[in-house]
Amino acid sequence: MQTNMQRVADHLLRYCKRPDHVEHEQTAIHRAIVNDSSLVDQPNFTRISTRTLHELFREYDQRFFLGQTMQLVHQRSGSLNFRLSKRMTKTGGKTTRIDYGHKSASGRVRSYEITLSSHLLFQGFKTPDPKERVSGVVCHDRLEATQRIFEHEMLHLMEMLLWVHSSCAETRFKSMARRMFGHTESTHQLPTRGEFAKRRYGLTAGQWVEFQHEGKRLTGFVNRIGQRATVLVRHPGGELYSDGHRYRKFYVPLGQLAPESMKRD
């Protein structure tokens, strides 16, 4: 008689549905989140919480993983948590496993956590005709992108539960991602802050810019791009930098910067 883990493992390794069936299930989840979620009231939502991730988990668990994910977590003497991160500025999602030192009657106690980058989700889909590529799939709204990232992280979780180790560079992961969700890549193309600044404002690090400060027109170069741009302006009373010049540091909203009108060699 098959154990629960063997049954789920066989399901994942043999899953073979027509692409239109997979797309139908993904669309049904998309519709359910918009219709039933307490925060996500539109595909390009402006608010999201960990409650939304719990809602996504329940939908995907029932539709793609036989409703057995939490059973596997408990079999591993583990717990499962969800988190949103504003600090993840390059990675769309991350799944981690923490092994604690003590053991229960059924084995070592573990904690599993799926984290999605709220920063990257809200960085994208700001143009009039928004499209971003996630896991090789074109996404037309923020919720579709959230789903593609969540699907990727769910597969990492299942590999950890069933086979301990997980890698999206390995054949098994790629095969499951393609068969179950239609993923053709293991990366996202959601814009980072730097890419967003270049796309929206034509700004890049190292670029010379002009801006207004206390009624004066200042000129400097972009040293770093975050929520605001860090601009260094030469000033005799400023901090000495490794290039031998002294600079004052200004934090300027991206929309208040303009390319410097003077050409430099």
Question: How would you characterize this protein structure?
Answer:
The protein has 265 residues and is an alpha+beta fold. It is built from eight helices and ten strands. The strands form three sheets. The chain has a five-stranded antiparallel β-sheet. The longest helix has 22 residues, at 142-163. The radius of gyration is 23 Å and the shape is elongated. It starts with a helix and ends in a 6-residue tail after the last strand.
Task: Break the fold down into its secondary structure elements and pairings.
Layout: H1 4-14, H2 19-36, H3 50-64, H4 69-75, E1 78-85, E2 93-104, E3 107-117, H5 118-123, E4 132-134, E5 137-139, H6 142-163, H7 171-181, H8 193-201, E6 208-213, E7 216-225, E8 229-240, E9 246-252, E10 258-259
Whole-number radius of gyration?
23 Å
The largest sheet is:
5 strands, antiparallel
Cα distance spanning the termini: 75 Å
Order of helices and strands: HHHHEEEHEEHHHEEEEE
The strand order across the widest sheet is: 9-8-7-6-10
Structural class: alpha+beta
Tell me, rounded to a whole number, the average pLDDT.
90
Give helix % range: 25-40%
Share of β-strand residues: 25-35%
Number of helices: 8
Oligomer: single chain
Tell me how many strands there are.
Answer: 10
- Shape designation: elongated
Nutshell version of this structure?
This protein has helices at residues 4-14, 19-36, 50-64, 69-75, 118-123, 142-163, 171-181, 193-201; strands spanning 78-85, 93-104, 107-117, 132-134, 137-139, 208-213, 216-225, 229-240, 246-252, 258-259. With 265 residues, it is of the alpha+beta class.
